[in-house]
Amino acid sequence: MYLRAVHAEQDIPTLRAFIRENPLGILTTTIEPSSPSDHFIQSSHIPFILDVSDDESPTELGKLRGHMARANPQTKAMIAELTSRASADSSSSSKTCTLSKEVLVLFNGPVHHYVTPKFYKQTKPTTGKVVPTWDYAAVQVYGRVTIYHDTQDDETDAFISRAISDLTSFSETTQTGRGVEHGEPWGVEDSPETYVALLKKAIIGIEIEITDIGGKWKMSQEMKGGDHEGVIEGFEAMGSEAGKAMAETVRQRGKLADEKKA
What we know:
Layout: E1 8-9, H1 12-21, E2 24-30, E3 41-47, E4 49-51, E5 63-69, H2 73-88, E6 96-98, E7 103-108, E8 113-115, H3 123-126, E9 133-148, H4 154-174, H5 193-200, E10 203-218, H6 225-237, H7 241-261
Antiparallel strand pairs: 1-10, 2-3, 2-7, 4-5, 5-10, 6-9, 7-9, 8-9, 9-10
Helix pairs in contact: 6-7
Protein name: Transcriptional regulator
Organism: Tetrapyrgos nigripes
Pfam family, one: FMN_bind_2
């Protein structure tokens, strides 16, 4: 992702908050496929839990935890690589192992939108030198992924159990918009134990140790004063929830950009 300085966000707590507010990441790997019909570059949408030991730390990157379907071709490619390495190296374990190549996870913001040149109140009327663009926010994470895939391994079972329990608890409390009138959140224990045990065999656990992280809020903050205000007014005039959200984010990012210049 091109992180132009005016759009880049490197504040770790801000990036952590973004991931937790938008936990559905796109995991991308580059692995030799296990089948000729599959691709070298593969991606999957995975909801993640972000773990850090100290949420107040301005530098700790943390780890991402999640799970994937065992039938996913991307999963098969990862397991095939680990199995191949284990066969070549007798000291390697095929139960829980880390891939040799880094992976990328991309988290996208909840709203993004086309920006018409008609929004610009300063440049368009004077020179006409304006073009359309697109405003959006995203965070990219690079790291090393360890997978837990051996159904006979206690460590794998414990990791997957914790992963699905933590993800369910997090999602039920942050993603459903439930009020107190709906009672207690749903939990994994509400399903039959034998049913959950069967489904656990159909997934693998993944844990990504983050090695690099960066964010991009491309929200027209590079535009001149009148043009920037025009974008805010243009989004507000749309009269939609998306337009309202975009206008507020453009306004916030504009203020941050001004503060950095001061």
